[in-house]
Amino acid sequence: MPLETDHSHPVTIACIQFEPKIGELDANLDAIEDRVRQAHAKGARLIVLPELADSGYVFDSAEELARLAQPIPDGRSARRLIALSSELEVYIVSGLAEAAGGTFYNSAMLCGPDGYIGTYRKMHLWYRENLFFEKGNLGLPVFDTPLGRIGIAICYDGWFPETFRQLAVKGAEVICVPTNWVPMPDQDPQDEAMSNILHQAAAHSNGLFIACADRVGTERGQPFIGQSLIIDATGWPLAGPASHENEDILYAQITPAEVSAKRKLNEFNDIFGDRRTDVYG
């Protein structure tokens, strides 16, 4: 059942940008715990980690993925994050490789002080993910927490405006985005990342706070671009973009209940109220 909660208090959110190592589950979980503890010490209440943060990303076979993926919430990675969030009384969103019977999903789990809250399974699979994972089948859930109404998207989901619009229509205030962004075709690496442009536009056009936690490093020849970002519901950055190459933790303070006010552009215009649903649904 949804919680009756008050989202009017400021919340410190942290995005952890680090370099998971492919196949090194214990080392990755140790790195996650260390950085979550750092973020907690700085006052973070909502902490976002990258996509597939426990396993690494570039699998060389289905057998390798099968060795690394685990159930949610009963697998080793999920249980360790749940215990950590309970101990520190924080909320954690982390990308995880999920095993559900004989099926695998590129997933993200939300947990908090009272334990497991929910799972999102990535709907839009990127490139070779299609060889290993099934498309998400849990829709776009919104989780009502004492901090705010939280939605989740993963990486390539952000290329689809429908992702954010559906979450906004369902009442989301904050979207957490575990991601492993890679260079886009024809993109000058010195220019602003396409990923950041898309997510700033989504934050502005939907009046949503969006927190993107990317990874860095090169894994089996695949580079990742970093540049994690926390975006205000107006579309302007609150923190970041982070480094292209170095590990980092971004912090920003948000007040989820302010999304309604931030959607009002002036006395006549409201980006939700002005929608012509009579024309386009």
Automatic annotation (TrEMBL):
It comes from the Bacteria. GO terms for molecular function: hydrolase activity, acting on carbon-nitrogen (but not peptide) bonds, in linear amides. Pfam families: CN_hydrolase (PF00795). Coiled coil: none annotated. CDD domains: nitrilase_2. Keywords: Hydrolase. Residues 11-256 form the CN hydrolase domain. SUPFAM superfamilies: Carbon-nitrogen hydrolase. This is Hydratase. It comes from Antarcticimicrobium luteum. The lineage of its organism: Bacteria, Pseudomonadati, Pseudomonadota, Alphaproteobacteria, Rhodobacterales.
